[in-house]
Design brief:
The radius of gyration is 23 Å and the shape is globular. α7 runs parallel beside α8 and α9 runs parallel beside α11. The chain has 3 domains: about 140 residues, Rossmann fold, CATH 3.40.50; about 230 residues, tm_1862 like domain (pyruvate-formate lyase- activating enzyme, Alpha-Beta Horseshoe), CATH 3.80.30; about 55 residues, OB fold (Dihydrolipoamide Acetyltransferase, E2P) (Beta Barrel). Strands 2-1-3-4-5-6 form a 6-stranded parallel beta sheet, sandwiched between helices. Helix content is about 30%, strand content about 20%. The protein starts with a strand and ends with a strand. A hairpin with a 4-residue loop joins β17 and β18. By secondary structure, the protein is of the alpha/beta class. The protein contains 13 helices and 18 strands.
């Protein structure tokens, strides 16, 4: 039986794409390799959001080719969509398939782990044949892509410990942020239909999962382009009303989509995790305009403060970028001060990476790398202080947490509904809700015992 391995890079949406590819291959009779070196074909599902992401993919290709030269390497994902010829030139690459044709990867692989010729991608069943082009490149117009490829992704490492599946319900983005390459590699916004989302959630609930994470590239735009348009809060309400899911968690939602109805719905339902993630990018109005972001700092602050007032114990996080073109010392300080004033509990801080083909890549006043890295350090320290204060406020309190993996020794990892890691005393089965009494801090989370 032919063996394969899928290696994923990047965001939750990419993880979901990789899970769908893996499911399709298993359905076609291929077997998952126990280790990467044993796989006859290795599929790299890549990211291209930064130059570092591209470099990580190239390093992985070289490592796999060096350690297992007999493996056929197929590269897909966002980097494959953006720069297929660059990837095809790397030693060991047997095929490059962009996001535009990612859903056809299973049809490209024959039982002998050969790729079918690109001309064979028709409606007829594929026949196993040998390579016709080496390497093959299959990349098309991503803006003509209408399919949404995804399967649930589980956060635990082993099948026996699967918890908190991540369900992708939306892909693509209609925004045109000046720094972002994602719309050009993922295409327009498209959504899983409401009835399909409900069906997938019910399947997960029937399988015994207690928490499901909804994700997407621009999740808050879910449903806008459907034949019968819907709004994201309608989806959230439908999941609560039409499924028995115990806890629903929302991944990143853009600031303009955190409307009053969504905040009130989250605050009023014990079945929605109290966790708000709203990408900020910058607290400077000037920089936000250069980024082509669709909100102003005061609008963002109003949304965050409204969420905090409605949910005093909620986790509130943001993505923040430093070193964007034109970010002077004064504008960086404006952003830092804005962030300091808001009730964030964590930040994901990124250093600007010029992406080929984006307007930001050719803007004047590019920030020196070393200066950008220093600004990154400043914001990470600010975020660490906010996170410490947030965690400290829960010592001596009791929180709901879902168990994850058992650690070596007598403790179990768990995650609270407001996104805090807990090292729980004792061995507890995964995928169980417990009441955790918090008695101390750890370096990154909390320590407690079952109440």
């Amino acid at each position: 039986m032919a063996t394969f391995q899928v290696q994923n890079f990047g965001c939750r949406a990419s993880q979901a794409d990789g899970a769908a590819i893996e499911k399709q291959l298993l359905d076609r009779g291929l077997a998952r390799a126990e280790a990467g070196g044993d796989a006859e074909v290795v599929i790299l599902n890549t990211c291209t959001v930064t130059a570092a992401a591209d470099a990580d993919a190239r390093a992985a290709i070289r490592r796999i080719h060096r350690e297992n030269p007999g493996s056929k390497i197929l590269v897909t994902g966002c980097y494959a969509q953006r720069a297929p010829h660059e990837i095809a030139a790397l030693p060991g690459v047997a095929g490059v398939v962009g996001n535009s044709h990612k859903q056809q990867i299973a049809a490209l692989l024959a039982p002998e782990t050969n790729f079918l010729p690109l001309s064979s991608l028709t409606s007829r069943p594929p026949q196993p044949i040998t390579f016709q082009i080496d390497p093959q490149i299959l990349v098309g117009d991503i803006f003509a892509h209408t399919e949404l490829l995804a399967a649930p992704v589980f956060e635990a490492a082993t099948a026996a410990e699967k918890t908190r599946p991540n369900l992708k319900v939306q892909d693509g983005c209609n925004n045109r942020c000046s720094f972002c390459v994602i719309p050009s590699v993922r295409g327009r916004s498209r959504s899983l239909r409401l009835e399909e989302v409900i069906r997938e959630v019910r399947i997960l609930v029937d399988a015994g999962y207690r928490e499901v994470v909804l994700s997407g590239i621009n999740l808050g735009r879910w449903g806008r382009e459907l034949s019968t348009p819907h709004r994201f809060e309608q989806l959230v309400r439908a999941v609560l009303e039409q499924t028995g899911l115990e806890k629903l968690r929302l991944s990143s939602v853009e600031p303009m989509d955190w409307n009053d109805e969504l905040i009130e719905l989250m605050a009023g339902s014990p079945r929605i995790a109290k966790h708000v993630h709203a990408p900020l990018q910058s607290g400077s109005d000037r920089i936000l305009r250069l980024m082509h972001r669709k909100y102003r700092p005061w609008h963002y602050a109003e949304r965050i403060r409204k969420a905090r007032a409605a949910m005093p114990d909620a986790a509130i996080g943001a993505d923040v970028m430093v070193g964007f073109a034109g970010e002077s010392d004064e504008l960086f300080e404006e952003s830092r001060a804005f962030i300091e004033e808001l009730p964030f509990t964590y930040l994901h801080v990124f250093t600007f990476s010029a992406r080929p083909g984006t307007p930001a890549a050719v803007m004047p006043d590019q920030v020196p790398v070393e200066l950008a890295r220093e600004r990154n350090r400043v914001l990470r320290e600010l975020a660490a202080g906010k996170n410490l204060a947030f965690r400290r406020s829960f010592v001596a309190r009791t929180l709901d947490a879902i168990t994850l993996n058992q650690r070596s020794g007598d403790c179990t990892d768990a995650l609270t509904e407001n996104y805090l890691k807990v090292r729980l005393q004792g061995q507890h089965p995964p995928n169980r809700w417990v009441r955790a009494h918090i008695h101390d801090l750890t370096s990154e989370g909390l320590a407690g015992c079952q109440a």
